[in-house]
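Holo prediction — 1-deoxymannojirimycin.
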Amino acid sequence: MAGALALGGATALDAAPKDTTDWHALADDVKAEMAWSFDLYKAHAWGKDEIKPVTGTVSSFPLKGHHLGLSLIEALDTLWVMGLDSRFQDGVDWVKASLDFDVDGNVSVFETSIRLLGGLLSAHHACGDPVLLAKAKELADRLLPAFQTPTGMPYRLINLRTGATSEPVTSPADVATYLPEWGTLSRLTGDPRYFATAKRAAVAVFERRSKLDMVATQIDALSGGWRSRRATVGSYCDSFFEYLWDGWQLFGDRDCKRMSDVCTAAILKHQQVWKDGSLWFADVDFETGAVIATEQDELASFYGGLLGQGGAMKQGAAYTESWAKVQARYGILPEGYDYATAKPTQVTNSLRPELADAAFTLWLLDRNPRWREIGRAHFLAMKRWNKAEYGYTDIADMTAEPKRQADHCPGYWWSEQMKYYYLLFSDTPRFNYRDNYLSTEGNVLKGFRRQPSGAGRSAA
Ligand code: DMJ
């Protein structure tokens, strides 16, 4: 079935046996797993950042040793779109009664924004409660001083209470993954500073691109100088590219569209590698285009969806199929994979959502059933290998037989793949499948439909 869409015409898709999957029953299964996991989180880790699904203990993130209810906040809009309304309300009530950002500790500006700020905004989009918006605004105001640099690019870390900043050496993803959340905040509050700050940071990265129109993984927010030469679509650069497109998709910002087009053209020109019929994107020197590495981050597997959104559907479909082949071979993707040797380079998997993200994004674009199949395989493998006594966990070794579990459930699990699966399979009337926006963290900032519960499904 590989490349069914990309190759066009008569393909393996035509010859495939008729799919008899009951997609809505599969969606109900996803919803049941979400409810089961959330109830365990509530019983053993309520208000904590992360549950450890093997031991039933907890871990904190993004603060060290202090909890902000990360998993609960990340779960909110997923619970809502699944119609798990009483659990959604329990979470909202906790936020209103207990969430306090006045903590003397350092957080990653990027992680805090995509996860907590984005989680609060998507929950607000779901129910309209003004307290959620007020909390989101308070958090953004605590993060804003990080952007006070000569370049407009933020420091990587900020102290939530004092506003003290640290770690000016940062990455394009850390610098420029703000526009959808911060632009939404500007729209909702009428204060233009959030959008302007986020856009200035994104433009600052773009303006420092090389003559090949490429950016690298590390940059100094104070001097604006590059601290690396490696261009990649994986970790450190991934969501920079994503949010350029998203600034256009969500706000119609033409500068964002232009920047996105320029970056995509350079990636397709200098990084595209076809090997044995599969498409990969090499890491290259951002000034010369010379190949530096053939290793791929699993994180890069989201990129097929982004290419499809930007109009490069052939490459987007092919790249997603490349990762789907690895999934078919191992069940669970490795955190690192070398396309030259066709072997994992890192055997862990941090309960990653990226391939499900790409499948859902491509399905929104063309409704090719192939993307549902990839999402189904991702979900069923997760159920088989990642399920533990107290929820879903990372994998320590995906090559071991049976696969060896770690003991950690990242916050994004609650916001990302569980939502992608459900939206991919359910045809829920709570979501507008034609006009919507999901952030890099899977937070829905546009496209929820509030309507009476019990309304039937429709594939609108
Ligand atoms: C998520 O937190 C976001 O998608 C981020 O942009 C990178 N990937 C992680 C999940 O793997």
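READOUT: The pocket of 1-deoxymannojirimycin is lined by residues 114, 238-239, 299, 352-353, 412, 440-441 (CB under 6 Å).
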